[in-house]
Request: fold
Amino acid sequence: MSVELVRAPALADSAPYAYAAVVGPGSLVLTAGACPLDADGVVGPVGDVAAQAARVMDNLVVALAAAGCTLADVAKSTVYVASGDRADLVEAWQVVRAGFGDHDAPSTLLGVAQLGYPDQLVEVEAVAVRP
Reply:
């Protein structure tokens, strides 16, 4: 079984990892956690859960596209929100759910103490199947 690491040139190149990996004969795609980074690698908008979730979903779409997938190819996602406030989790979840539209694949929503970048509030990782 082979692993193809996928780089997404349209995303910040400051991350020390590939944005996705395709496993096997081109079928299983595992993404890194999509973060609310702009093209320069800056987290934002600072303090805005919904806006960060929207940027995360935009970046997830780009990473999936670089691996030959769309959100409709996602088999499972995990949503991380750096907050102990359930309202923040719900706010992030609503944005993520809206991004997936009618494709309601299994997902896990977690409140966590902290994420990897300063001021980062939301991260989403996905497992997809390349068509």
Notes: DSSP finds two helices and six strands in the chain. The chain has a mean pLDDT of 92. The longest helix spans residues 49-66.
